[in-house]
Amino acid sequence: MYNGAWENYDNGYSKCEDGSYLITNNGVNANIEVGASIKVSYIFKTQDEVVEPTYHMFLYENSLNDGDYDGLPDYEEVFLYRTNPKDPDTDKDGLNDGAEVKLGFNPLLNDSNNDGILDGQEKTEQNLECAIEEQECAISNVSIQINGTGLVSETTEIQNTFGIDMLSTGVVGLVGVPVNIETKSEFDRATITFAYDESKLGDVNEDDLRIMWYDEENNNYVILNNETVLDKENNTLSYTTTHFSTYLVVDQKKWYECWRSTINYRTDDSQETQESQNFDVCFVVDRSGSMSGNSIITAKDSMLGFNEAMHYDDRVAIVGFDSTAQVHLPFICPSDEAVKNSIGNIRASGGTNVESGLVAALDLFDKTEPQMNDNGVKNEKMMILLCDGDVYYTEATLKRAKDAGIRIYTVLIGWSSGRTALEHIAEVTEGKFYSAQESADIRDAIYGINRILSFRWGG
Q1: Which site among 181, 207, 374, 409 is 20 to 30 Å from 95 CA-CA?
Q2: What is the pLDDT of residues 246-271, one digit of tens each?
């Protein structure tokens, strides 16, 4: 065969005693010297007997030719693996012959290990690396360990997008470069690892390094505060995920400082509206036992960050609830030291009674004198409800909030069954629902309320 064409070698071969044939190039193959001979074994058979090659024979250009582009030289396909050099997937299992060989599968069997799963759908542990060649870049290498289908080196790409993805390139606190990871493989999990050069971190504290990913659906960046695994001995950061996106390493201290210092949560872009509209914000916080650990710590830290971004004419209050509710702090100026103390004193224990928290917050709004600015505009009222447990409430309570003009923004922490209820609470009161499956999402959900209130931040 020369470039896919069948050639007749009726007069160009002689049979050897061992059953192989000595084929002489008659000049049709440019890669083999004219007159040179190649010894091959015949492979054509009828149902009953071996057919003498008196009509057609395969003659391959050289050992490097890959006619079906499956990653295996034609010579190896015929004489080593016995696969079809004209079909990239001899056994029709959805995985090309070359990939099967590299992954340790049998390219002649569509289910090499007889587990009932086609080789093309079999998930295997594989690794892929991308060296970062930017000068003076603190990130030297990005790698993934993935349990996925197919040959990952062919299905997956790690791309350095520094200077290409300008949004990610301009992220405040960026360390190194952003990378975009895409794959055609199906996978259960993948661990992304960033290797960094400590000598190039500059003024960045190693302990402040965190991985961040871009949530395209919600158009925001999610910092993996507690999910990032920092290995200072080996200078790596890693994170295990079930999806791919754009990932980057940031200095979490600089990131949060930027959010806190530049958030402007007026309801309109005009200066007049910014000066005329203020807010009364009541945090209603689940302090039940299931909130213990990272959840309550991150919730408290997020509340502090939100509070620091509030205007001096705003007011903030805090209600905590477990089996019962308690007013931790009545409405006061955000800059009052009592706000930090009250947030710091919240402890997680007991059951979950959302209704008691909502009622306590509504009662607090009722008995608090409205505050107006110099233009006679009253503070707008809102609640931020953080909860991770079963959600009990009454429609009467929601109607009471709506009639009072109080929007309730709800944040579900974890994977509990309370999602539908919290979505309903937000919808009825014209607030918005947020889901926080990971502890870092709590912080992002609270800050993310800025999108509804037209918060703006720069950097």
Answers
A1: 181
A2: 999 999 888 877 665 544 444 334 34
Give the DSSP per-residue string, 391-440. ----HHHHHHHHHTTEEEEEEEESS-TTHHHHHHHHHHTT--EEEESSHH
Q: Kindly give, in sequence order, each residue whose CB lies less than 8 Å from that of residue 96, ignoring residues fewer than 6 positions away.
A: 70, 71, 88, 89
Question: Where do the domains of the chain lie, and which CATH numbers do they carry?
Answer: 124-258 (2.60.220), 263-451 (3.40.50.410)
- The single-letter code of the amino acid at 59 is L
Q: What does the alpha-carbon distance between residue 22 and residue 240 come to, in Å, rounded to a whole number?
A: 57
Strand order through the sheet with 236-241: 124-131, 139-148, 187-196, 236-241, 229-231
Q: Which of 255, 261, 167, 140 is nearest to 208 (CA)?
A: 255
CB atoms within 10 A of CB 231: 11
What are the CA-CA distances from residue 290 to residues 224, 294, 319, 340, 417 (Å)? 21, 10, 17, 23, 14
**DSSP state letter for 6:** -
Helix and strand element counts for the chain (H, E): 12, 19
| 406 pLDDT above the threshold of 70 | yes
Q: Any idea what DSSP says for residue 370?
A: P
Q: Using 50, 70 and 90 to split pLDDT, how confident is the model at 15? A: low
CA distance 262 to 454: 13
Gap between the Cα atoms of 131 and 125, Å rounded: 20
Residue 431 has pLDDT above 60, yes or no: yes
Q: Taking the CB of residue 154, how many other CB atoms lie within 10 A of it? A: 14
Closest CA to 289 of 313, 328, 322, 244: 322
Q: What would the pLDDT profile of 66-117 be if each residue is shown by its tens digit?
A: 888 898 988 888 888 999 988 999 999 999 999 999 999 999 999 999 999 9
Pairing of strands 406-413, 380-387: parallel
Closest CA to 346 of 323, 359, 368, 327: 327
CB 28 within 8 A of CB 38: no
